[in-house]
Amino acid sequence: MSDGPAANPANGDGSIPYEPDVVTYERRGAIAVVTLNRPGYRNAQNSVMTYAIDAAFEQAVEDPEVKVIVLAGNGKHFSAGHDLGTPGRDHHVKYPNKAALWWDHIDRPGGDQRFAREMEVYLGMCRRWREIPKPTIAMVQGACIAGGLMLAWVCDLIIASDDAFFSDPVVRMGIPGVEYFAHPWVMGPRAAKEFLYTGDRFDATQAKEWGMVNRVVPRADLESETMALAEKISAMPQFGLALTKKAVNQSEDLMGMRAGMDSVFGLHHFAHAHNAEVGTDSLGGMNARTMKAQASTADAKNTDGKD
Ligand code: ZN
Known about the structure:
disordered C terminus
């Protein structure tokens, strides 16, 4: 990596194993490549990774030479979702809030804790990253599931390889979709309902048909095609790109995305609370293993799920 690993400001408090470089940062000319780097866990997103992604994005935003940012996943899969069960699961660890001005979730009970945490690390962080003032491209291969969708969706463009697949299976937990509820805007309401009602995995070609991804390319060409597009965009004026991004994002919000997400975040937390009230936990008794067992198509290596 030409610039060394991105800042990794928090990596546990000793209660989880130290993992070096859960996100890497590399600058290739005018393009910054931010790479999720927990391939042994299919890039499951824990909080260490969340704050490392944020630090890498900040580095790219602050570097005046960077024109375009590519978000990639190391290994066979882009991201199999939020970390539900790796040794590095760190939902109980305190990290300084970056996205929300709210109290820390640690030592808070019930919904107070859940709301504080998810507003910070899920909804808040995703919104923060969507507003990065430079074009972002998600380069997606293999699994892009639940929390993985959120990472791809906050990017401006999505280039998928022909082996990529997408799903949000959290309705199996009784929860109406992931925290960053962009579904009706990124694929249309009817497709969103099929996507959520079935929890099925949909391939890249289907995702493109719905308008959720920009291009589908052979796996072997994913990086070269993504970098070529990034290069092309990088020839445009930086401030013009920033204003254009704002123009489209503001228009999308005027189509109801931001307000819709706020309202659905309430339903999401009602579902968590209902699960906790009638059962043993806020995930409806589901975990990475049971989610995987119920996945409708075969890729037994994936740990679908989220929290
Ligand atoms: Zn949640």
